[in-house]
Amino acid sequence: MTTHQQHAPHPAADPTETSWAAPSAEGAAGPDDAARGHGDRDRIDDPEPAARQVLEGSHGPERFLDREASWIAFNARVLELAEDPELFLLERVHFLSIVASNLDEFFMVRVAGLKRRIATGIARPAASGHSPAEQMATITAHAHELQERHARAFHELVRPELAREDIHLVGWEDLDGSTRERLTRDFHRKVFPILTPLAVDPAHPFPYISGLSLNLAVMVRNPQSGKRLFARVKVPDQLPRLLSVDGPRASRLPNGQARFIPLEDVIAQHLDDLFPGMEVEEHQVFRVTRNEDLEVEEDDAENLLQALEKELLRRRFGPAVRLEVTDSISAEVLELLVSELGIDETEIYRLPAPLDLRGLGVIAGIDRPELHYSRHVAHTSRYLNAAETAKAADVFAATRARDVLLHHPYDSFATSVQAFLEQAAADPKVQAIKQTLYRTSGDSPIVDALIDAAEAGKQVLALVEIKARFDEQANISWARKLEQAGVHVVYGIVGLKTHCKLSLVVRQEDQGLRRYVHIGTGNYHPSTARFYEDLGLLTCDPEVGEDVSRLFNQLSGYAPKTTFQRLLVAPRSVRSGLIELVEAEIRNHRAGRQARIQVKCNSMVDEAVIDALYRASQAGVPVDVVVRGICALRPGVPGLSENIRVRSVLGRFLEHSRVFAFCNDGDPLVYIGSADMMHRNLDRRVETLVRITAPQQAEALVRLLARYVSDATSSWHLGADGVWTRHHRDGEGRPLVDVQDHLLRSRTLGRPTI
User: Fold this and answer.
1) Share of the chain above pLDDT 70, in %
2) What is the 3-state secondary structure (H, E, C) of 543-593?
3) Distance separating alpha carbons of residues 648 and 715, to the nearest angstrom
4) What is the sign, positive or negative, of the torsion defined by CA atoms of 54, 56, 58, 62?
5) Fold adopted by 89-371
6) Nearest-5° angle of CA 71, CA 672, CA 27?
7) Two domains, one topology: 1-74+376-754 and 89-371
8) Per-residue 3-state assignment (H helix, E strand, C coil) for 216-249
9) Torsion over CA: 310, 313, 315, 318 (sign)
10) How many angstroms separate the most distant Cα atoms in the chain?
11) Is-contact 361 395, C-beta < 8 A?
12) Element containing residue 273 per DSSP (H, E)
């Protein structure tokens, strides 16, 4: 059991006491160290030595695309999938729900943050040169356009297709008398007791409207005095948003009719029961988005856990940043909402009912196999299968035989990473387990394995990142559960989020202690592992084991002069190490040797990294970038980036892996890991990249990246003007290759994806 003192964040905030906060002047790594993947990576004096080099020609801030506009463009690409009539219908519904959820987070974090910085006067121009006011104007225009397009996609494209498949979103007026009576009975039993009408008058102030809640604005008239009054009714978020009109089984019947009605419509039809003696004159639906980003002053927090819990309570009361209203709202009601919420005209979004299309997830989950992607069953990695016992693959034996490179969800998470930790927990030869947890599921077998190991007397360390955005409360709960089981729980280093994906198992064997390691690109989350594309490495290589042991010691204790061999570790050496590798490719090209750079990541924003890639392009090095979300790099600009191609692949799986491949004159240097090319990842998080040393695995990753950027692959291409264009058919109208479908079919046929 950990003590109260162990709840406190790591106190080493003094730059002289930890190598995270300020690089020392000792042991600067040279280009040769960068090329080999060795050296005192975390003791480099200048984190970006190559970044000081100037670009050829005159290229100012216009060389960077605006990151906020790029984020909106990413969601427009997701929306294109929802609009695609050739895609499975219920998958299109799912993409509509994803866009709605993404927009919510964008307003809660990015828009709210920019608005806060403008209000405090500390906002500086973006790297693109746009002033804060220009950025906000761009965001506002693009966000309005995207939300309106999102609503049209549902009402004009998807909803009619659902109706043709006998799946209906209905209103009260569409129901017959007997159905209305049944829903009324259900309302009085299951909904009415929860509702709390809140009046607004001299005795009742305007109520607090919680973020993302759905609400009814109701105007009632007192028949005796004739006075009109306002009231608010919150739609309970603990109840299903869309009610199955024909009962819970109807939506699961193959090829059967499925009818749904929004909960707010049912409540609206029974407002007379909430306001007896009053005349209900009108009702409108509205929704508020608030600033819900957390700000915890860790240096001043005696206990990070308690400080975060207090901040989670304050999050509910952040200022409003968006007001969504139905397009039929009256001027009187809208004026009252705007006045009370402190919203200006540009923050009002008038949309057709129903609001909050996240609720479409209920429809997307209907069991109609012909309207979904075909079912995918992940296979056990062939390298783990080679070490099968009577019960399951022996992960330790397989890892001793060779490094095992995993590609999820094509390779099963349950029979690899999860099995690794479960076998470690049950193995009497295992002495210790150390694990990072950034996000995990509500019924996590990973957490259960750590608890089992601790209860079996093993030494278990869990580094729980309780500041993982929007998972803070869940992670606090997991931290306490682990502590109660005897797991040593720590929260990392002050000022940094621990985002790296690491497992370390120490096992007693005949030759002595052996360390087994898993390093991944994705969270230890069994649920998302089924639809997130990620990579992972299982290895017992002594250098990696030593590196990961040192890193865990730095995260849980005091280790200010830690050095690494096969790892690049942020915030000290990921940026500088990658830039050195880029510079090595430039030198190779100028010397007439083979040179090429391939990058796959979620976001490409960091200016120093982008400028390094621009320098490579100017030198003639071909650069391919595969980015899922935000990209501030502007490809194809003459004299700057004509040798850079940027592609984006979206589909049934969320592309989440990060890969960095450098040709190195035909002997590829390839890294995988947790770091995206963003300031927060490179400066404010603990991230790891690990070098893939097995030649066949490195070459397989290079081939995989080449497939992603191939002109024969369906993808979006980013132009020099910042516009993304979808390329999913060839010149004769034939579909291009869906890389995810290709990998699925290959895995089903027994051919590995990597």
Assistant:
1) 84
2) HHHHHHHHHHHHHHCCCCCCCCCCEEEECCCHHHHHHHHHHHHHHHHHCCC
3) 6
4) negative
5) polyphosphate kinase like (3.30.1840)
6) 105
7) no
8) EEEEEECCCCCCEEEEEEECCCCCCCEEECCCCC
9) negative
10) 92
11) no
12) helix 271-274
Other C-beta atoms lying within 10 Å of the C-beta of residue 616: 23
Q: Classify 260 as helix, strand or coil.
A: strand
Measure the CA–CA gap between 621 and 617, rounded to whole angstroms: 5
Confidence of residue 294 (pLDDT cuts 50, 70, 90): very low
Least confident of 260-269, 297-306, 482-491, 560-569: 297-306
Is 437 strand, coil or helix? strand
Specify whether 59 is catalytic: no
Contacts of 7 (CB under 8 A, 6+ apart): 303, 304, 305, 306, 491
- Angle between the N-to-C axes of helices 132-152 and 112-120, in degrees from 0 to 180, rounded to the nearest 10: 160
Residue-range domain boundaries for the chain: 1-74+376-754, 89-371
3-state SS class at 512: strand
Distance CA 461, CA 626 (A): 35
Q: Give the active site residue among 499, 518, 525, 589.
A: 499
Q: pLDDT category, 296, cuts 50, 70, 90? A: very low
Q: Is the pLDDT of residue 306 over 90?
A: no
How many residues can be counted in the chain? Answer: 754
Instruction: Say which residues have a Cβ less than 8 Å from residue 592's Cβ, sequence separation at least 6.
Output: none
Q: What is the CATH number of domain 1-74+376-754?
A: 3.30.870.10
The two three-digit tokens of residue 661, written as one number: 């491949």
